[in-house]
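Structure first, sequence second, as always.
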C-alpha cells in the first residue's frame, strides 16, 4: 500500500513539474465570450537588477491536440509598438474588441486554431512591459531587444515546461524584420553553447523592414506603379535623391515634400483603405481604436495580471521610436539572412501588396539581391478558388504576397493570412490553381 502511495506522490510531483504556471492563468476577461482553450498573461522578469520585465499574452491552441502543436512567438515592430493590438486583439489572436471597447468578440481566423501562440510586448517600455532602471530608456538596440526576448523565452519555458519539446517558430511584422532574424541568430548561438535548447524550426515575417537601401527606393517605385505620384515627380526623386551635392539635396527635399503632400490623404498602411485622418463620423469603423480604452480598464489589467496597476497602455511608445539605435535602423539584415540560410531554418517572407510603409517592391528588391535558387517559379496561389496572392519558392526560403492586404495582412485579409500561416507551419507550398 505504501509503495502505491509513494508512486502516486511521485507521479503527482512529475505532473506538477510539467504543468503550466497557474498564477498567470486568465480566468476570463470583461466582456469575453466563452472559449474552449486556456490563456495566460502577465509580466515575466528577465533582469532582477534592472527590474526589467516583459508582458506576454499566451493562448493555447483551440484544437483537440493542442499540447502537440507548435509554439509560436508573435512580435510587432515600430519599434515600440504593442503585439497585443496586432496580435492578441487584432488579426492573429483569438479576440478583437467590440466597437465600444466594452468587450471582446471572437476572431474566426485566429492563428491559435493551428498553433499555441505567445504575443510578446518588446522591447521593454512597450505596452505593459517595463524597466525600473532609468538609464535603460536610451538603450534600445536590435541585440538588446533580441537578448531580452531570449531571456523571456527561457523563463517562459521554465514556467511552461510542457512546451519545451514542441516545435518553435517566430512570426511577426514590420520592424520585427530586425527583431526576428537577430533573435533567431541568438537562439542558434544559445543552442550551440547550452543544453537548455530552444527547439527553433523557422520564422515568418510580414512586410519586414530589412535594408534601407532597398526599402526606401522600393517605396517610391510602389507609389509610382500605383499612379499616386506623377512621372515628373518620380524622375525628380530618382535623379536627385541619389546624389550628395547641395543642389541635388535641395531638389530632393522639394520632391520629398511633394510626395508627402500627395500621400497625406491616403493610408500609408493600406492605400485602398479609408484614411482615418479624413474621417470623423461615428460610423468610421476602420478608424475606431477600441483597444486602447479596453486595455486601460483596471478590471482588464487585473485579469491580465498587470502589476502596479493602473498602467497607461498605449499602442506605440514614441520614446522607444525616438531613442532606438540609428545604426541598427540602418543596419542591413541581408548578411544575417545569408548566415541563417546555412542553419536549415524554414523561412517565409510575406507581403501585403497595398502597403506603402514597407512595399512589396522593396521586399522583392532585397530578395533579388540575395541571388537565391528558384525551385518553383512565380505563380498565383489559391484561396477558396480565388487568387490569394502570388508566391515563389526558393531553396533557401519562400516569398508570398497577400493580394489586397496592406502593412498588416492578418488584419486586412484574415482568411488568406491564416491559410498562408498554416502552410508555413506545415512546411507545405501554397496551393496553385
Amino acid at each position: 500500500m505504501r509503495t502505491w502511495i509513494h508512486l502516486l506522490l511521485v507521479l503527482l510531483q512529475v505532473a506538477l513539474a510539467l504543468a503550466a504556471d497557474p498564477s498567470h492563468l486568465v480566468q476570463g476577461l470583461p466582456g469575453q465570450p466563452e472559449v474552449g482553450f486556456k490563456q495566460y498573461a502577465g509580466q515575466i522578469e528577465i533582469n532582477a537588477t534592472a527590474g526589467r520585465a516583459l508582458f506576454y499574452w499566451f493562448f493555447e491552441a483551440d484544437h483537440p491536440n493542442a499540447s502537440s502543436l507548435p509554439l509560436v512567438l508573435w512580435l510587432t515592430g515600430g519599434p515600440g509598438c504593442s503585439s497585443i493590438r496586432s496580435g492578441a486583439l487584432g488579426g492573429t489572436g483569438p479576440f478583437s474588441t467590440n466597437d465600444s471597447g466594452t468587450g471582446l468578440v471572437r476572431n474566426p481566423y485566429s492563428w491559435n486554431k493551428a498553433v499555441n501562440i505567445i504575443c510578446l510586448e518588446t522591447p521593454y517600455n512597450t505596452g505593459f512591459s517595463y524597466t525600473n532602471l532609468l538609464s535603460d530608456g536610451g538603450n534600445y538596440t536590435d541585440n538588446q531587444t533580441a537578448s531580452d526576448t531570449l531571456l523571456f523565452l527561457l523563463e517562459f519555458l521554465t514556467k511552461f515546461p510542457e512546451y519545451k519539446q514542441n516545435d518553435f517558430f517566430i512570426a511577426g511584422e514590420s520592424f520585427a524584420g530586425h527583431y526576428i532574424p537577430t533573435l533567431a541568430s541568438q537562439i542558434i548561438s544559445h543552442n550551440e553553447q547550452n543544453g537548455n535548447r530552444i527547439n527553433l524550426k523557422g520564422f515568418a515575417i510580414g512586410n519586414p523592414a530589412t535594408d534601407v537601401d532597398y526599402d526606401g527606393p522600393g517605396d517610391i517605385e510602389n507609389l509610382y506603379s500605383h499612379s499616386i505620384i506623377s512621372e515628373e515627380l518620380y524622375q525628380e526623386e530618382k535623379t536627385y535623391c541619389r546624389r550628395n551635392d547641395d543642389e541635388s539635396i535641395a531638389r530632393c527635399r522639394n520632391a520629398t515634400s511633394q510626395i508627402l503632400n500627395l500621400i497625406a490623404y491616403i493610408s500609408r498602411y493600406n492605400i485602398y483603405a479609408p484614411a482615418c485622418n479624413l474621417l470623423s463620423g461615428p460610423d468610421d469603423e476602420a478608424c475606431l481604436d477600441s483597444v486602447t480604452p479596453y486595455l486601460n480598464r483596471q478590471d482588464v489589467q487585473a485579469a491580465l495580471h498587470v502589476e502596479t496597476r493602473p498602467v497607461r497602455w498605449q499602442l506605440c511608445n514614441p520614446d522607444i521610436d525616438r531613442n532606438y539605435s540609428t545604426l541598427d535602423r540602418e543596419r542591413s539584415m541581408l548578411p544575417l539572412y545569408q548566415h541563417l540560410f546555412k542553419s536549415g531554418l524554414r523561412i517565409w517572407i510575406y507581403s501585403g501588396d497595398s502597403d506603402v510603409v514597407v512595399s512589396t517592391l522593396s521586399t522583392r528588391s532585397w530578395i533579388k539581391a540575395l541571388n537565391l535558387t528558384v525551385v518553383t517559379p512565380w505563380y498565383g496561389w489559391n484561396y477558396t478558388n480565388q487568387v490569394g496572392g502570388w508566391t515563389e519558392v526558393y531553396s533557401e526560403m519562400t516569398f508570398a504576397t497577400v493580394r489586397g492586404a496592406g502593412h498588416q495582412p492578418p488584419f486586412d485579409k484574415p482568411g488568406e493570412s491564416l491559410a498562408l500561416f498554416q502552410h508555413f507551419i506545415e512546411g507545405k507550398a501554397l496551393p496553385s490553381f
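Margin note: The chain has two domains: 20-214+286-426, 229-264.
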